[in-house]
């Protein structure tokens, strides 16, 4: 009775008889089918890493960014529909600016996460709107230290030590659980993050590029893209690890 196509999926304001909101679940499916994005909170900061498929040989490298600066102390990585993610990122930047103007200090991570969750949740409440098809991973380094947050299409706002979203999320989470994040520096985490994305990449034959950023003591607690030489070294080690794994098999 409550299956897809019976009318309960026509609006985000309608519950099915078994308590589901299909429009919100469809938005989550858009995230689950997207490229893998992960975040790691280490002893000295947070690392964000995104896998981006190269859809055309004519595509300019580095275009269609999935990692954005929100404030000096906040960065965000987008999984799911990139245009939806840009809209939510813009809202996050507005919230950070508004908080600084009113209170005279940088917005704390938990406040930004909750405000962003409330904003995203609003799009699940009105029939004239559709839920955002994106999940945001927030890397923050505020007066309380480094923190990693996630806001999904339903508006749930959670804090993590490490997490992954997208197509390879489960395999990536399994790898993250093996890491000793509390003892790991961000420089080490960058290499591990790249290794994980190479390992869980399941689009055989399809070229992809990585986008990696960090916010840590080494960057003076400011969100920045990982230096090119460090990213190149991480990719070299990741490819070597894959080759060693194939030889063992």
Automatic annotation (TrEMBL):
Residues annotated as transmembrane: none
Family (UniProt): Belongs to the peptidase T1A family.
Keyword Metal-binding belongs to the record: no
Keyword terms: Cytoplasm, Nucleus, Proteasome
Gene Ontology terms describing biological process: ubiquitin-dependent protein catabolic process
Described function: The proteasome is a multicatalytic proteinase complex which is characterized by its ability to cleave peptides with Arg, Phe, Tyr, Leu, and Glu adjacent to the leaving group at neutral or slightly basic pH. The proteasome has an ATP-dependent proteolytic activity.
SMART domains: Proteasome_A_N (SM00948)
Any single Gene Ontology cellular-component annotation: nucleus
Matching SUPFAM superfamilies: N-terminal nucleophile aminohydrolases (Ntn hydrolases) (SSF56235)
Record-given protein name: Proteasome subunit alpha type-3
Proteasome alpha-type subunits domain span: 8-30
Compartment(s) of residence: Cytoplasm; Nucleus
Keyword Transmembrane helix annotated: no
């Amino acid at each position: 009775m409550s299956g897809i196509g019976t009318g309960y999926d026509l609006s985000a304001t309608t519950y099915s008889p078994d308590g589901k909101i299909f429009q919100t679940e469809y938005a989550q499916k858009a995230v689950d089918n997207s490229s893998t994005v992960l975040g790691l909170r280490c002893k000295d900061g947070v690392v964000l890493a995104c896998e981006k498929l190269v859809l055309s040989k004519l595509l300019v490298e580095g275009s269609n960014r999935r990692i954005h600066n929100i404030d000096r102390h906040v960065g965000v990585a987008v999984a799911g529909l990139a245009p939806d993610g840009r809209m939510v990122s813009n809202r996050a930047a507005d919230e950070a600016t508004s908080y600084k103007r009113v209170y005279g200090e940088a917005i704390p991570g938990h406040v930004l996460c909750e405000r962003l969750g409330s904003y995203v949740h609003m799009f699940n409440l009105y029939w004239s709107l559709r839920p955002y098809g994106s999940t945001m991973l927030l890397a923050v380094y505020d007066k309380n230290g480094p923190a990693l947050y996630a806001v999904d299409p339903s508006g749930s706002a959670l804090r993590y030590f490490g997490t992954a979203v997208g197509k390879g999320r489960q395999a990536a989470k399994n790898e993250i659980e093996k890491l000793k994040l509390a003892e790991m520096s961000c420089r080490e985490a960058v290499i591990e993050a790249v290794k994980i994305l190479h390992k869980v990449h399941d689009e055989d034959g399809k070229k992809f590029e990585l986008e990696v950023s960090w916010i840590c003591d080494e960057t003076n607690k400011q969100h920045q893209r990982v230096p090119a030489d460090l990213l190149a070294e991480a990719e070299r080690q990741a490819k070597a690890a894959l080759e060693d794994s194939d030889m063992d098999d």
